[in-house]
Specification:
Blueprint: H1 3-13, H2 27-37, E1 44-49, H3 55-58, H4 63-67, E2 70-75, H5 81-95, E3 98-104, E4 112-120, H6 124-137, E5 142-145, H7 149-163, H8 167-175, H9 180-184, H10 192-217, H11 224-231, E6 242-245, E7 258-262, E8 266-272, E9 281-284, E10 287-290, H12 292-320, E11 327-336, H13 358-370, E12 375-378, H14 380-404
Parallel strand pairs: 1-2, 2-3, 4-5, 8-11, 11-12
Antiparallel strand pairs: 3-4, 6-7, 7-8, 9-10
Helix pairs in contact: 10-14
């Protein structure tokens, strides 16, 4: 579509009773805009502003507003242009969000025109969003906001205070991010050495966690609860495909250990079991097969998926009315269970079978895993080995950045990281 056609279609989607209180009245416009900007729908927030003073409040008053990276403000009055621009500029400075202003051409008409916008010039994510807006809507009078480091820090802290975030909460949120390079741009110096040092600090912390988890899974007295408590908040350990974790229960009466959401809105359930399971595999005739606890845990996860498939459509509607776009009908699950080191199956002279080795145990789990649809089975040892290899790769990249003098995490304007499994924006 041409920019004129794109704006025309958005105007059609905004033909609403704006004064009417409804949480989902802008969902169509939000979804359309998010697709154009190559963002998840949860990162775009539309709000109707009857007067300029309301802009700062509406843009942070709900979970959907706080999560958004882009705020599209629909401005009713034309006699407050200067006040509206001041409020929008202040909002962008305090939250780091990209703000796009649309204004009614007439008090009671359905014609909306682009009034302008604001974004943080140093934020690569905001640069990408603005480039996509301009690409789809044509020339937009955006004002890039340049701030000193002291002003930026003050704005960040003020925003954290207003949304009730503690330092510990912010740290936990950062620890879940997969794109380390983009995170440290907010905290490290602009030099390659500064970025490399910050990356190394994050990688070091994560390595320490993996070392502690390896110690725990080698201890027979470690319980499933101990492991769950230790891993809580460190969901990067499962890989970079995930954008968030669901809060509470998705399906009534089913409670998942860790419900993770992928970039496309689909659900991935992680079911954690203990590491000390001597009968992880057992001998059946001349072969090894997974033990009863493995089968039980796998069927538990399979039942979760079945419940989601059966009730997914109704639940999606329920959550959509709350501003959440979940795709619950094609979910997957991963069962984390056992540690190969606890398996001890001696040789069987009668059947002329040797003792079970680690490769034999691994092959048994892989064979079982390959025969199950939409449920993956993984041991704690394999999970931690995989996470450790990923950190080694991150460390090599960080060292390469330092040696070449390039800034890590850099990107070109207009490129989008949608589909990468992570969102590097600090404010979202």
């Amino acid at each position: 579509m041409t920019p004129e056609e794109t704006l025309g279609h958005l105007r059609e989607l905004l033909a609403k009773e704006h004064e009417k209180s409804a949480t989902n009245k802008y969902n169509d416009a939000r979804d359309f805009t998010a697709k154009l900007l190559r963002l998840p729908a949860s990162r775009v927030y539309f709000t109707y502003i009857s007067k300029a003073a309301n802009l700062g409040v509406r843009a942070v008053q709900s979970n959907a507003a706080v999560q958004a990276s882009v705020v599209v403000a629909l401005i009713k009055r034309r006699d407050e242009d200067e006040a509206t621009h001041r409020a929008a500029r202040k909002l962008a400075l305090k939250t780091g969000k990209t703000v796009l202003l649309l204004q009614r051409a007439s008090p009671d008409g359905h014609q909306w025109n682009i009034m302008g916008g604001y974004f943080m010039s140093a934020d690569l994510r905001s640069q990408s969003i603005v480039a996509n807006i301009v690409e789809n809507f044509g020339r937009v009078p955006f004002e890039p906001l340049d701030v000193s480091p002291d002003e930026a820090v003050y704005g960040v802290l003020d925003f954290f205070d207003r949304v009730g975030l503690s330092g510990a909460g912010v740290g936990a949120a950062l620890s879940q991010r997969q794109d380390i390079s983009s995170i440290v741009q907010f905290a490290a110096a602009s030099s390659a050495a500064g970025l490399s040092a910050a990356e190394a600090a994050v990688i070091s912390q994560r390595r320490a966690l993996i070392a502690e988890l390896k110690r725990m899974i080698a201890d027979p007295i470690t319980t499933e609860t101990d492991l769950h408590r230790k891993i809580k908040g460190n969901y990067w350990i499962f890989g970079g495909r995930y954008t968030g974790v669901a809060r509470g229960s998705i399906v009534p009466m089913d409670r998942y250990d860790i419900p993770l959401f992928c970039a496309d809105g689909s659900l991935h359930i992680v079911e954690l079991k203990g590491s000390h399971i001597p009968n992880l595999v057992e001998r059946h005739r001349q072969h090894l097969i997974p033990g009863e606890e493995v089968h039980r845990a796998t069927m538990q996860a399979a039942n979760y998926i079945r419940q989601l498939d059966e009730g997914g459509a109704a639940l999606e509607t329920l959550y959509r009315n709350s501003g959440l776009n979940y795709d619950l009908r094609r979910g997957r699950a991963t069962v984390i269970i056992g540690n190969q080191d606890f398996v001890d199956i001696p040789e069987d002279p009668v059947r002329q079978l040797g003792a079970a080795t680690r490769p034999m145990i691994d092959q048994t789990i892989r064979t079982y895993d390959s025969l199950i649809n939409r449920v993956d089975v993984l041991t704690w040892a394999d999970l931690l080995d995989s996470a450790e290899r990923a950190l080694r790769f991150e460390s090599e990249i960080s060292a390469d950045h330092a040696s070449t003098g390039s800034k890590s995490g850099s990107s070109t304007q207009g490129d989008s990281d949608e589909g990468s499994g992570s969102d590097p924006a600090l404010f979202n």
